[in-house]
Amino acid sequence: MSQHIHFISDLHLTQERLANTQRFLAYLDSLDTNVSDLYILGDLFDVWVGDDDPTPPNNDVKERLAQLTSKGVNVHFLAGNRDFLIGQAFFDLTNVRGLEEECLIDLFGTKTLLMHGDLLCTDDIEYQHFRQLTHSLEWQKETLSKPLEERLALAQHYRQESHLNKKEKSASIMDVNDEAVIAVLEKHGVQRLIHGHTHRPNVHQHTANKQVAERIVLAEWDTCGSVLDWSENGHEIFQLP
Fold it and tell me: 164-194: per-residue pLDDT in tens?
């Protein structure tokens, strides 16, 4: 039986989107060892203020991920811009494997680069400055030392600020920069990149390393779920109702 590898991103799970959580949990329950690996490329949660936060659906998701890994499915997580504070306690409980922000894998014989995608949006200078701040160990240590209630309030503030800022920015600024894409492809010597973040699912072609390179953008989970399924026979995208 052919093995399959799944890629998903941008589920933005939150207690306000119950249907999306139910869809994800049902999807996890449907997986068996026919799927050898599941790669979650960021923004699994709409917000994550620390591994000690019991706000629904955090505990349900952790429990189901632990059940899935116990069945032998390898689950990998690459942090997004909403859930980059997921820490070691989460990984210890679920047996999910954390990934670097630029992760290389061998995808059925082809070296493939995985990213969340926000690092490629270099035209959004304001966001990149904010990202650099929030990804510093000092900022994270200070933030995680605050009481849970204060962290939740800060997260709500940042979400509101992000929503307002998006209204003031052009669509092109919040998309990836082609030069940044080519640079990272050439940095790693690869001809395939899979990422999420932009909520603009598509397949793009670039010229990198003097060859044609493929960039696959994963879809946001909104009114349905989207899964990129890869096997030795090729790949397809299927939707979850």
Answer: 777 777 888 899 999 999 999 999 999 999 9
Domain, as residue range, for 141: 4-240
Collapsed DSSP state (helix, strand, coil) of residue 109: coil
CATH number at residue 23: 3.60.21.10
What pLDDT was estimated at residue 161? 85
Q: Can you read off the two tokens belonging to residue 87?
A: 């820490």
Which pTM does this prediction carry? Answer: 0.96
* pLDDT score of 1 more than 70: no
CA 114 to CA 8: how far, in whole Å? 11
**Cα–Cα dist 32/50, whole Å:** 29
Q: Higher confidence at residue 149 or residue 2?
A: 149
Beta carbons of 207 and 186 less than 8 angstroms apart: no
Rounded Cα distance, 185 and 81, in Å: 21
The domain tally of the chain equals: 1
Q: How far is CA 165 from the centre of its chain?
A: 21
Tokens found for residue 124: 């959004």
